[in-house]
User: Fold this.
Amino acid sequence: MNLKFAPLLFLFAMASSFCWGQAPKKVYHTKFTSEKITIDGKLDEVVWQQAETATDFVMVQPGNGTPEDSNRKSIIKITYTHEAIYVGALLLDDHPETIARELTTRDDFATADHFGVILNGFNDGQQDFRFFVSAAGVQQDCVYTDANGEDFSWNAIWDSEVRIVENGWIAEMRIPYAALRFPPTTKQTWGLNFYREVNKTRFKYTWNLIDNKINTESNQAGILEGIENIKTPTRLFFIPYSSFYLNGNQWTKTNGQLKGGMDIKYGINDAFTLDAILIPDFGQTKFDNVVLNLGPFEQTFNENRPFFTEGTEMFSKGDLFYSRRIGGAPSLNENLGPDEEVVDRPNNVNLFNALKISGRTSKGLGVGVLNAVTRPMYSEIRNTVTGATREALVEPLANYNILVLDQRFRKNSSVSFINTSVVRNGGNRDANVSALVFDLNTKKNTYKLSGDYKYSIISLADTKTSTGYNTSLNFAETSGKYRYSFGGQYVSTFFDNNDLGVNFTTHYHSMYMNGSYRLLNQTPKLNTFNIFFNNYSEFDNRTGRLQALNHGINVNIVDKKNDYYGFGFNGRPLHVYDFYEPRTYNESRFIRLPRVMSAYFYFSSNYARKFAIDINPSFTQSDEKNRFTYGFQFAPRYRFSNKLAFVLDYTYNHLNNNVGYVGQDDSINAIYMGRRKINTHTLSLNGKYSINHNMTFNLVTRYYWSYALYNNYYALLDNGGLLNVTDTVALDADRNFNTWNCDLNFSWWFAPGSQMNILYRNKAFLQQYQTIDESVKGNLGRVLSSQNLDHIFSISIRYFIDYNSLKKN
Assistant:
């Protein structure tokens, strides 16, 4: 398509969308029952014989729109009571002995057949509540939006049971209204879809067709009618917890610590929910994958704390929220006097409490509020001469707050306002960032116009307030075999949302243009095929210099055996200028980077097999002599049985003649860079043994070793070039970095929503400077030696209490 006509086509599409009609949707009519239904996977109650049948599923992947096979029919029925909706599914299979039934922890699909029900109480195409159960009885649940996909950090309390029968398998579900959201109307009309996955063929089906020509799922659901005169029960849940920690290593006495607290979930009304944590405990969260970071920006980590992952999809609007800022590392430095040293500095900031309120009205207005208060934190300072100690404030009392207003309309478009603020006690740095974000789609989801405008205000007691802005505009065709997008962004010099978000680069403007082609249906040789073309350029606002450039092509293939292949080529055909690696005030200096070409390939065999493997080699070559990068990943996995499985993952990367920052001498305005070799090894082993779908042992280990050896040092020139430095004694920057983490965990869901976790963890962290040992034996031996390992043993019990159960009792 000729891109110069794209704006005219978009205006025509937007105007035409108001008169286009939607394809007919399937409708299911359910009826009320007063019969007691036992969730046992038998479907032997009378109501199941009388209920209407939903069948005639169609394939989503790989043969989009293909009717399900007659020997693998799906027969679904729904009924409801005053407390819950019930779903019964008979999933026919002419070879029931081949039904995949791997046992895993909750929310892990693994290699198993699955059935799911998708419900939208407002039928607005905006937010689905999805409930899945595997043929092994493992539950998965999530909140889905087209913008953010499936969020499996959300967990609801519902019942399910499965049973293998002679002609397939049965799934039976009870989903209480407390797990759903719907309007307070007499007659309910909900969005509805059913999902089935047959693991041995990787075929995926839905009841109402999800047409892959259209870039949305929620708007392609069917309709559920017949539910009348129901009310959401009081949604008040208490989750008290108690934890015990035992810590020790070779150098300190083993000590124990007992903790306790409570989470509260309260349904303010039919649409809005309040979540609060009182005296939080995050001691059993997954460890962070720390790396040797030689770059100019901090390393960011995934969020593993449940409060900050469950139901937070609304707070991701505008990309202003990085939850690890709350409770992260202290922000202030110690002001040391003569003969003073830091004896103990806290790694993280502790929380007093946190709460969030979120929901959406029947008119489509979503409201989200998140607030957290962190404790003041202190370092211990000691005078090396007198031995006297004192405390130094490294993080003041602080309040973090986010407000989101998200107005949805026409089931596929939205305009949002977001505000984040951080207020610190005692005249320390305060921050306020606001954003207006829009996402406009045509009625048939064929074209999209999106963009944002963000404005930041940073205040310090002793300096002038600084302000900045960040704005972007994007247009895309989002349907059909051929798709494209283009847009641009402008970021001013002083835009800063790093107090509660992440934004490392400023003072630039960028442009991009992408195109793609995909198979919409399988062919005799391929299940899926897509190819993407990417073009991106970025310029410094002050000098006009090119600071980023990339042209790329990426291909992804799934063959008839459900093996995955992919490859890509990326290039930077011009020199670019990096304003961040020299680490000067306001990025006033830069280093010139060479032209590069890179390529990668990956292969991932079908995980449905007992043995599968992932392989991913890559290579990058620059136009500088002997400056290149290569790496590879090798990750075999073996499933010994439905209960026992292991995954080994080894990754190696080598950077040759890479150039990076070493240090600076402000007295002579000198910045020093070094040419270095960087080798990185990462080895992880993950394993699980499931006793049943409620009790699982999990093993997670990770050994990371990276070292940098410098062979030349340079002074940075004003034109971005390098001048060789002969006196390098003071610049010796060699680094050796080792980390080890091992978690052995037993998880037991002993009652709905209630869990006991027993965790043994050992870990080590080592750094060496200047004198580097390049041997595997030496590094692994040191990091695993008893003198360097910290040991933690913990038991945590969380018990779910439903106010309605207390009221009945």
Observations:
- The chain is about 5% helix and 55% strand.
